[in-house]
Structures are given as structure tokens and as C-alpha cells.
Amino acid sequence: MHARFSRRIEEGLQTLARRIDKSTRPLERGALERQIGRLLERNARAAARYAISIAEDETSASGLRLQWTVQAQWDDWATLSEGTYISAQQHRAVDR
Prior knowledge:
Layout: H1 2-22, H2 29-42, E1 50-56, E2 64-70, H3 72-81, H4 88-95
Antiparallel strand pairs: 1-2
Helix pairs in contact: 1-2
């Protein structure tokens, strides 16, 4: 399940990065941040997997560049938690 959400996020980020690279005019950072936020909201199960930033780039017409990295710790957590369900009562018992 996490793989499907991760794939959707990566496809969305690649599309947005292409759009930024092909832009012939300056883009507004706030609008791009909102688009990224909506993408992560729609795919919340894998949103924590990515560290995403918009950097200044004077070499491009848009003036911006999209950067993202995958956080390996999240992949480890997702592998361990996939299909694991802990009730609140079980969680309290483990804490004691």
C-alpha cells in the first residue's frame, strides 16, 4: 500500500519539476508550495517519506528548482508497520 502512495507522490513531483524546468517566466513559490501540500495531502500515507524543498535557481527562467530526497528511515518503518495493527489497549500494555 505504501508503494502505491509513494509512486503517486514521485510521479506528481516529477511532473511539477518538469513544469518548473520548462517555465519561461518566473513562478510564485507560494503557489508551488500549495501544490506540493495538496499532493502530500492526497497521498498522506507516504508523505513522510520525502524531504521536499523549493530552492532559488538563477539559471532557470522560473527562478526556482524543486528538490526532494527519500528518507530511508521511513522505508524501514513502513516495512515493519505494513499490515500491523495495534489497538489502544495493546499499546498501553506495551508501555507498562
